[in-house]
Amino acid sequence: MSEHLLCRLDELPEGESRGFAAKPDARYADIVVVRAHQGIYAYRNRCPHTGAPMEWEPDRFLDFSGTLIQCGIHGALFRFDDGYCIAGPCARQSLRRIAVIERDGWLVALEPLEQAL
Q: Considering just the CA atoms, what is the radius of gyration of the chain in Å?
């Protein structure tokens, strides 16, 4: 199994999101990671509606309440725990989950970021 170090866990505060790209010069992130009180969740950064990246600014993936992932293009809203779209043009569809773990203070993706493309 291929792994990819994303960041130190303390670099992703609770209640925030962050994008990670496979290539350093990428315009958009390949995956979005959210750290919530309930846990850490990672998904492919592609809205099921159009396949477009979802950030509305770098590392900005959450709605105004900070409780849902929001697509910056059409406003679709996704739950943290399962990536299920509860509102918007892709309602009842889901984001593709990326497996991540915490190891020795680091956040690690359990698959290469290139597979998130």
A: 13
Per-residue pLDDT of the chain (117 residues; tens, 9 = 90+): 578 899 999 999 999 999 999 888 888 999 999 999 999 999 999 999 999 999 989 999 999 999 999 999 999 999 999 999 999 999 999 999 999 999 999 999 997 666 555
> Rounded distance, CA 55 to CA 45, Å?
8
pTM above 0.85, yes or no: yes
Torsion sign (Cα): 44, 61, 85, 65: positive
Query: Residues 75, 7, 56, CA angle at the centre, nearest 5°?
Result: 20
Architecture in CATH of 4-116: 3-layer Sandwich (2.102)
Please choose, from the candidates 86, 80, 44, the residue with its C-alpha nearest in 3D space to the C-alpha of residue 62: 80
Q: What are the sequence ranges of the domains in the chain?
A: 4-116
